[in-house]
## 1
Amino acid sequence: MDLKIKSTVPSTKQEVDRWFSFRDDIHKIHLANNSYAEHKILNEFYDTFLGLIDRFVEAYQGDMSKLYTDNNAKEKLLASKSKLLEFIVLFKNHKDLENIIAEMIELHNSTLYKLP
């Protein structure tokens, strides 16, 4: 009888996706935190961790194979910008929040301009 043992080791893509999700979870905890020291520590963690994920994926894809093939940056940016333009109108009486969303829109526009 040939027994097959199911591996519990995730695929590289599954593990990287888990890292992205974990990083987002830490970012949300950072935003919910009431301690300034912990807030700053978690900020440093999620920024550094994201950079390490990016380095790993780029090195992996250069050496092994592509993990991600979605190449629709312009389409995604345009859809995101459209949602931001709908959302910003909710903050006309809150100029500080409106300005931050306007900067997000500016970032989208600048990125769209720079993409080929």
## 2
Amino acid sequence: MAAAKKASTKAPKEKKSTDAKTQTFKDFVITKKRSGRFEVKTAKGKQVNGLDKARVLVDAKLVQAGFPKDKADAGSEGASGETPTT
């Protein structure tokens, strides 16, 4: 005779969060993932990407970055970096 399987009474395991660190900064929620990347969302839950994301992370002092200069500033310094020949 074959033994009947008992129904499992264990609760299903909860999935562990992949987020390593979450913090709130100004109107943003910043999450550092296990991969080392950062996720930035607004208070309403909308994703922030690109230059806006980089500025939020720099303001939070989580990363160090250099930003491109404004075109008005770059023109006054001489963009080519060469000395003029006469």
## 3
Amino acid sequence: MAKTPSFLLVVRLKLRPGTSETFKKRWTALARHCEEHEPSTWAYELATLRGDEDTILIYERYRAEEDLGQVSQAFDECVPL
């Protein structure tokens, strides 16, 4: 199997209690935006911890580290939670 170099980032967020469903809805829109407009974003996935809906893990994979700097307005709108 050929290995393609990439940059991986795993983010752990602790949300305010009771905001996880709103965050997930906003994040879904953000992930769709990334898929449609950021070709160097190869993966953008969300996971929650079993038994702790307020802790969110986001797995991001980019073509290269410098592509991480492409923070969009959609992200800014999602993060305030």
## 4
Amino acid sequence: MVAARLSKLPAHRPSGKQANLPPSLGDTAKMLKVSERSIKNAKKVERQGAPGLIEKVELGKVAVSTAADVAELPKDELHHAHFDVKGVFR
């Protein structure tokens, strides 16, 4: 989730570079030692996930990849999605 937020930082001018660009997805992934897919999943959770789902990811109770799958469920099916301690569908 941190990586998703970091990738949305406003443009800045790093020393030695001429362009005023936001950090790329690849740069953010390398900086935080996560995969680009993890960042994409986190962005999906932030965009489409319910506040409770986002909170569970932030607390480490649900994996961001699992939460991204849940965030894609139609809203009428969300009440059927239950998680065990490891964040796996039951």
